[in-house]
Every structure is written in C-alpha cells, then in structure tokens.
Amino acid sequence: MKRFITLCILIILVAEAIAQVRPARRREVQRFFESTTYVVQDRDPFSQFNEHLKNAMEKHWHITPVKYISFSEFERMRTNENASFMIFADIKQNNLAEVYEFINFVMGDKKRDFESMPDLGSVPIAYVDADQELYYYKMGALVKFMQTYAQEQSNTPRLRLSRFFNVTDPKLQNMELWLLEDELAPQISSVEKIRNFYPYRVKIVSREEIADAIAQDREDVAFLHKIGPEDTLPHPGRKCWKFIIAAKDGRVLFASSHEIDRSNPDALLPSDLVKMAE
Question: How far is CA 62 from the centre of its chain?
C-alpha cells in the first residue's frame, strides 16, 4: 500500500497557486548535483511501478548516481540534506479536491515533514487509483522531465513555476504530435477531424509506439500526457489536465486544463488543438 501524504504544496504542472510551494534554492540544487539519488521502492507487492521506474532510470537518468531503497530506509535518511529522493506518493493539495499520484522528487531536509523538502521537479502522473497501465508506457518521459527540470533550475536562479501554466511552445508545430484515440474528444477522434483544428503533423498511435519513441529519444515526436479521473470518480466538475511532452527530453510544450462536463469530456479537446496551432 502506498503511503498517503497530505501536503499543502504546489503540484508542479498541475496547481493553480504558486505561493504554497518551496522550490529548491540555488544552493540546494547545487547540492543535488553532488548527491546520490535514492529511489524509494513502492511498498505494494502487486505493483509493477518499481520495475518500470527502475528501467526508465537505468536508461535515461545520467546526472547523479542512483540507489534503490525501501520506505523504512527513506524514513531514516530523509533528513540528510546531501541526498535526493524520488518517492511514489498520493498527494492531496488543499486547493484541489482530488488526490493525485506523483513521483515526488526532492532533496532531504532536517525537518521531518514533506512540506519542507526542497522540490526539484516532482511530476504528477495520474489520479489516485487510476489503472497504472495507463502511464507505465510513458515512464521514461517522466524521468526525462525530472532530469531536464533539475538541470534547468541549476541555470535559472529564480525559475518561476508558473512557466508550466498555459504553455504553448512553437517548437511543437515542427514536430509530429502523437495521440491515443481513447484520449480524444469525439469531435477529434480521427486524423481527418483533427485537421479541422490543427494543420500540423499529427498521428494516432498506440501506447507501445509512444514508448518506443521515448526509448529512442525521438527529436521529432511529442505526445499527450493526460491526467483525468478515467473510471475512478464521477466526472462532472473534476479536472482534466493536458500536457504535450517532447519524447526526447520530457520538456513541456503545451499545458492546459478544463473542468469536465457533458460538453467537455475527460479528453483532449478541439480548443486545445486550436491553442496549439496559434
């Protein structure tokens, strides 16, 4: 069973308020590059999360040494300010009703609470209790995102986390956008329909094809990372979060969200494509 953590902390890529977060300061980021990153193993014996994250780390993580530890070891080590940690956690933020699954990516801190641990680039992956098979295929890109984000902090003394809200990077229009059919609103359920809203290169693919593009560090491919309730909660009033991520380095090229209702399902919407095409 995963540890449930209640935090009053900004959910990077997801939250609407900036004031609640304590991002890593420059000196803490510098310590990170001299640290060992400890990946905390999920305690659920039936989860394949550990295997998928370990495979992604071994293939894509290049900036610090990595070791794998148990949750009890993390509890003993978390006050080590010269250690960095990745831990799979369920996070509740006080300005959002839902609970989300995260890879929490933080530096150790002398205080024994999660709110004080300097955030290096934690990444949301799904609503809690969503089928984990829905995101295993993109684990490599999530690892790349954390690595890219940590490296950029080292070069940016006052990185504003708000950069991830309403992002529209024109580089996306020079790439091929890969989408899953089951993550598209009915009005854009085929390439032909998509072209009514988005004139650039687009392809409807499988999860396996996206996983291959991530593994191959494809510079020409970007894909949708959608976080929605799926079948875990009644949909009306819930949030659907949409991020277009570069397969090569996990960089966020587009970000938006909407409240789900009868006209706006738990899916990428035509209005998102219009924004991407602007």
Answer: 19
Residues 6+ apart with CB under 8 A from 46: none
Give the pLDDT confidence of 193-241 residue by residue, as tens digits.
999 999 999 999 999 999 999 999 999 999 999 999 987 656 777 889 9
Residue of 219, 215, 224, 228 whose CA lies nearest to 265: 228
Q: Which amino acid is at 248?
A: K
pLDDT band at 135 (very low <50, low <70, confident <90, very high): very high
Domain locations in the chain as residue ranges: 4-155, 166-277
Q: What is the pTM assigned to this prediction?
A: 0.87
Q: Work out the angle at residue 209's Cα, subtended by the Cα atoms of residues 257 and 64, and round it to the nearest 5 degrees.
A: 75
Q: Provide the β-strand partners of residue 184.
A: 268
Comparison of pLDDT for 77 and 97, the residue scoring more = 77
Q: What is the chain's alpha carbon radius of gyration, rounded to the nearest angstrom?
A: 18
Instruction: Return the H-helix or E-strand segment holding 53.
Output: helix 49-60
CA distances from 265 to 98, 123, 228, 234 (A): 17, 23, 10, 12
Q: How sure is the predictor about 92, in pLDDT bands with cuts at 50, 70 and 90?
A: confident
Most distant pair of Cα atoms in the chain: their distance: 56
Tokens of 225: 């990372």
